[in-house]
Amino acid sequence: MVQQQTAKAPKVVRVIEPTISVQETVNSTYRAIRVAAYCRVSTKQEEQLNSYENQVKHYTERINAEPGWILEGIYADKGITGTSYKKRDEFNRMIRRCKQGKIDMIIVKSIARFARNTVDCLKFVRMLRDLDVDVYFEEQGIHSNQPGAEFYITIYGCIAQSESENISANVRWGKAQSAKEGNVPFHYKNFLGYRKGADGKPEIDPDEAEIVRFIYDRFLAGDSLGGIAQKLEDLQIPSPSGKPKWQFSTIQSILTNEKYKGDAIINKTYIKDCISKKVMINNGDRPKYYVENNHPAIIDSLTFSRVQEEIARRNSKKKVKQKGSKTEQGRYSSKYALTELLVCGECKTPYRRCTWTISGQKKIVWRCISRLDFGKKYCHNSPSIEESLLHRAIMRAIMDTALKNSDVLKMLKLHIGMGFEENTTEDNALNIQVRIAEIDAEFKAMLSGVSSDTVDAFDDEKASALIMEKTELQKQLEQLQEIQQKRINTKHRLDDIYTILDGLKNRPMEYDDQMVRQILECVTVDSKEQITVIFIGGLKIKQSLLDC
Question: In this predicted structure, what is the pLDDT of residue 18?
């Protein structure tokens, strides 16, 4: 028997009405909106500061006048860029308040006021949206919590960033044009030796200039950076930043800054871009401009050049592997001149000053570093020489050179000055300058002949060839100018040596490290009986140790 199938019951949907009225629900969950306003002006100029004050006043009045709104606070940054949030203290404080749940809504004039960096703008908008914080941009009429708001924020953010990039490009172009005209920006803060004059141009500060000259003099006298720093601190002379402690880098900067000889290099550094604002050292990425005689010099050109040569000489000291060290040692020593001048005649390794104690008596000797550290493995016959004997022998060689007839001094001059009277360098430099002027004139003529009708006829290959030739000639000119400067420096160093040696004729001197540095290039230990004293320029004097 087939059972009769029962019909399926229809689906029933019932609406459950609220037990309280809608009005009662609203009243029970209602909370006033805590509103903050953010203001920013990008410069500290007076008109923008007025704009800043107006913004603060405007938002204070608006929020207080809106029913259901409570003023949480006005956050305002003055004179701060919008391309980065890192230095915007008030902006960051406002974000922290949002994370603490103390802000429900932020009002800002425009997206450009909020951030000119598209990435930062979107990052913070999304962060605040996750925190249920709405951002209202007045000019664009956009709420960040509206559907599709992110798309519009991205568009307007890109426009704001593009404006910043255009402004940055305009500023960069303006600085480049100013540099081409030789206009040097001079920063006086923490810059020793100069102050801003009544005419707005740099003038020498006499007291500070003496400190600069002292630093240059002590460096040429043989002092190390640390030695100079210690002398300045002992004299209680504050650093350029006003601190009692002098940093080695500060002294190094003073010794290498061309502004102290009255010149200036423009574009030593540059800003990578307007977003990161990273400062980059200009290693040829952008043009540099060298301005001569821009302001009064504290250090004459000769002294400045001699200091640069001495810096290069100290940095190029021969490296010596010493026992117990992982790397070779080549650091300049200012304490004893012989530390860098005295070398072993057998293995060419520098000598080291040592203290021996024999029968309770201390004696200073100089020994070959290789022999001292490794025994006879690398150096077999180098002798140890008592310091007092070594000093007497060196001074005997110097005195003998000074006391002999003038032919010796003439020979010394011949050795040092050989070839420096030629005019080849000057002639070559003049020829290069003439050719550069011809290239500039030819290139200018090519450009002046270009019009809308003849642009296709412009010879790109010839233009490129002219530019490449000019670049190469400029490099050659710089090299020739460097050679010429070294020639001038050498001639003046000759004069110093002659003055010292000539003065020794009638006034015998005791051994002096500073004087030895000025006139000697090297002292070689040939044996326990003899040394070779080599003057700057190559003149060699054999000196016996037995009669000293």
Answer: 43
3-state class of 354 per DSSP?
A: strand
Best-predicted range by mean pLDDT (273-282, 292-301, 421-430)? 292-301
CA distance 124 to 91: 11
End-to-end CA distance of the chain: 145
Q: What share of the chain is helix, strand, coil (3-state, %, to 5)?
A: 45, 15, 35
Contact assessment for residue 115 and residue 160, using Cβ atoms and an 8 Å cutoff: yes
Domains of the chain, residue spans: 25-167, 194-313, 333-418+506-544
| Of 541, 503, 496, 540, the residue nearest 519 (C-alpha) | 496
The mean-pLDDT minimum among 242-246, 295-299, 509-513 falls in: 509-513
CA angle, 500 then 504 then 507, to 5°: 130
CATH fold for the domain made of 25-167: Rossmann fold (3.40.50)
DSSP per-residue codes, 67-122: TTEEEEEEEEEES--SS-STT-HHHHHHHHHHHTT--SEEEES-HHHH-S-HHHHH
For residue 246, give the nearest of 260, 235, 223, 230 by alpha carbon.
Answer: 230
- 450, 488 in Cβ contact below 8 A? no
The CA angle 384-388-394, to the nearest 5 degrees, is 90
Cα(257)–Cα(454) distance, integer angstroms: 48
Per CATH, the homologous superfamily of domain 194-313 is Putative Large Serine Recombinase; Chain B, Domain 2 (3.90.1750.20)
Asked if residue 136 has pLDDT above 80, the reply is: yes
How much is the pTM?
A: 0.50
Contact present, 351 and 342 (Cβ < 8 Å): yes
Q: How many CB atoms lie within 10 A of CB 76?
A: 20
CA pair distance 186, 199, nearest whole angstrom: 13
Per-residue pLDDT band at 427 (split at 50, 70, 90):
low
Question: What was the pLDDT predicted at 280?
Answer: 67
Which whole number is the average pLDDT over 191-213?
90
Average pLDDT over residues 178-196: 74
Count of other CB atoms within 10 angstroms of residue 135: 24
How big is the CA angle at 307 (ends 306 and 312), to the nearest 5 degrees? Answer: 100
**38-47, 387-396, 509-518: which has the minimum mean pLDDT?**
38-47
* Tokens representing residue 263 in the block: 């010149």
